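Give me structure tokens for this 240-residue protein.
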Amino acid sequence: MLDYDYDDEAARYDESRGGLPRARAAAEAVAGLLPRRTRTLVDLACGTGIVGGCLREAGYTVLGVDLSAGMLHQAAGRLDAAVRADARALPLAPGSAEAVTAVWLLNLVDDAAPFVAEVARVLRPGGLFVTTVDKSAAHARGSDMDALLDPYRPVELPDGAGRVTALAAAHDLRPHGSARFTGHGQGRSPREVAARVREGSQYAAGGEDLARRLEALPRPEEPRPDPTYTLLALRKRNRG
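Here you go.
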């Protein structure tokens, strides 16, 4: 995973990421992909539990998993249970999970392969893995920033839909639908993106030239439309 201190950010994480509107949109999209018979799910990288909490309100029993103690402290009370663990080594028996969700996890890792393999291990036959894919492609698409940013987007990403689908196929996980939802409160202004370019956290290869071109766009302080995120559902094959 990226070297990032989520413990330090936990207390302010929700308000900086769109809060309940964004979480509810994600949870509704996830629930729309789950089979009606599903009652329990494992929420990987559950963070503050805000998405899992919305799923719990919808009637699911939710086990949250996260590496950050600070995030799990915020999640207390939102989920039915939570455990501090690495998503690549879950404290779950093989074939024990009805469903596993990973909202905004695979975009943070260098290699999605061990995460997908571990999900496949714990899913029961017929179980569903629901994950966000192509996260970076959701930002600035269709806005006047798109043409400026496109040359600096990586060609292949760990959470690319094609990459995740190929990894899943090696573990008997097959595509079983997709959904999209709005990332409320996540629209960024050209000036905000320019600041991230300068600090090297996004589109760093563009450097000062890209930052200046972003700031030269009309209304540089005005947030562009919220991103639309994509969920991919993958079903574990029933054998026999």
